[in-house]
Amino acid sequence: MTDASVGPAGVHTIAVGVDGSPAGQRALDWAAARSRETGAEIVAIHVLTYDQEFARDVPPIGMTNWRRELERDLTGPWTERARAAGAKLRTIIGEDESTTAGLLAAARRERADLIVLGVHGHGNIADRLLGATTYKIAHRARTPVVIVPAGWTPGDTA
Q1: Which terminus of the chain faces fewer neighbouring Cβ atoms within 10 Å, N or C?
Q2: pLDDT tens for each residue of 116-132
Q3: 153 in a domain, yes or no?
Q4: Distance (Å, rounded) from C-alpha 143 to C-alpha 117?
């Protein structure tokens, strides 16, 4: 892609699922390279799910602290390499019933032209049957999805 690809039919917004994991970092590194090539903005999205993270809100005095830490991580170390690489980047913390639902909803709201996810490298048939996030998004998204493999590094061109 080149700067000429940005336009009415080009890539303007790239939604990236991030969670502080190496898989999320690979996805963000891949998206940062595309951002530099196209001028597209990255929207780094972390989704809180009702059945897991919200349990941390009890007791209520813990709510503010862990959410502030999460926001610091998302705007700091989790996205630092993309910013250092010169990518245009915003962050969003969403809330939904599942990571899949939250990422898809955020991608729609942000009018993402592309969704980028990293895989953790331990996917198997059980993950697909049980509904790994990458599998569900790849099959439900209305937007093209890029899944960055576990072995990919920023220097890879293929």
Answers
A1: C
A2: 999 876 656 655 555 58
A3: no
A4: 13
